[in-house]
Amino acid sequence: MAAWTAAARQAANIARLSSPKSAATSARASILVQRRGLAGGGDHHGPPKVNVWDDPMSPSQWKEEQFVIVSLTGWGLLIYGGFKLFSGGKKDKNEEKVGGGAH
After folding, report:
1. Residue 52 burial by CB count (10 A; 0-12/13-18/19+): exposed, middle or buried?
2. What pLDDT, on a 0 to 100 scale, did the predictor assign at position 69?
3. Is residue 100 part of a domain?
């Protein structure tokens, strides 16, 4: 029941905000519309984060996005290198044919 009333209240607010009839209504509507929420700068906790190329030897100081990219790249290279190492690579068929053929 509470979910239905919340949905009805939200629908009524959307209907009221989508079709303002006067300048006073549009001014009141602009107050009700949330602009940026938590997207602002705000207070930062802890030490400031730096770019990977500024301090490459301390991952705890890196920005989160760059840490994820570097970590996934490292794991990808490790897995690919292990695959190439243990699969033995592709044998060149030309070398086998040169020594075994006779006219």
Report:
1. middle
2. 96
3. no
